[in-house]
Amino acid sequence: MSRWITPFQLRDKGILGMNRRNVGYISRYNDRRQFPLVDNKLTTKQVAEEAGLAVPKLIKVIETQHDIEWVQEELAELDEFVAKPAQGSGGKGILVVTGQVGDNYQKASGEMITLADVKRHLTNTLSGLHSLGGRNDVAFFEELVKVNPYFNQFSHEGVPDIRLITFKGFPVMGMLRLATKSSDGKANLHQGAIGVGLDIATGQAIRAVQNNHLVSHHPDTGASLEDIAVPNWHQLLLLAAQCFEVTELGYLGCDIVIDRQRGPLILELNARPGLSIQIANNTGLLPRLTHIEGKKTRRMSIEERVDYAREHFSPQMRDTQLPLDHIKEQVG
Hints:
- This protein has helices at 7-12, 18-29, 36-39, 41-50, 65-69, 71-75, 115-126, 233-247, 277-281, 286-293, 302-312, 328-331, and strands at residues 58-62, 81-85, 95-101, 104-107, 112-113, 139-142, 161-167, 170-178, 194-198, 205-210, 213-215, 251-259, 263-270.
- The chain is an alpha+beta fold.
- The chain folds into 2 domains: 7-53 and 148-331, ATP-grasp fold, B domain (D-amino Acid Aminotransferase, Chain A, domain 1, 2-Layer Sandwich), CATH 3.30.470; 58-142.
- Helix 8 (233-247) crosses helix 11.
- It is globular.
């Protein structure tokens, strides 16, 4: 297959490109006044909690260098934690600690770091090293999500998450992101994680890609990715659909994790979700979005929107199946 595909072919295949996403969906359906709700992870967590949505527990907020000097007392009581920049993007600046060994901390990758390393990471976060536009930031600690045992064979050390794209409150496309050794235990595709396209009706795997190449097995665990069927699928769809009422953002990316004890938790929300989900699903987003745009009916409940999406957006319906493995440069 040729590495390149023409813009006309992309259009005919139903691929949503970056320019059309930005102008036709983000600018049109996302009020910029609502962006701070999702651009700041700490704000997202607080708003979600107020709305009754489940999120990982907040442990502490670090706002000043003075806070960092006293952080050792907080960490002494924690065997594991996650430190995040409030305004980070693309998985940058997230520190995952899975245990303490003496005076040192063990990252999800197995690497050992010192208290000085943790403090340096927090200092860099406050200075804006990991934030959008390099702006001064705050950091926060939250509880480490405990992986649902179902995913033990499918992910390397890190916690898998499920990205669901919602449009006007309808879940339209889903992808499971699996950590690998090369992604340093983080479920971020740009860092080498695996993206598994999911049937929106059932949560079952459609196919899997890593670095935009098809893969059938996890490179670190050897588990077959074709056998995946995400548990709690209906609950995940309901949680994502509810985020429309909470944020009032029409085009939204919802990142959800499944904790072994608490079940599905909102991890992050994104007003500008990426487009690689189309590659993982081997399907263009545009037909599903235009379908919802053309739907003129009464206002539907969250449950009704989820049922409608499951009925109309399964691959067994009329989605165009596409060979999308080599179009990362144009999809973005």
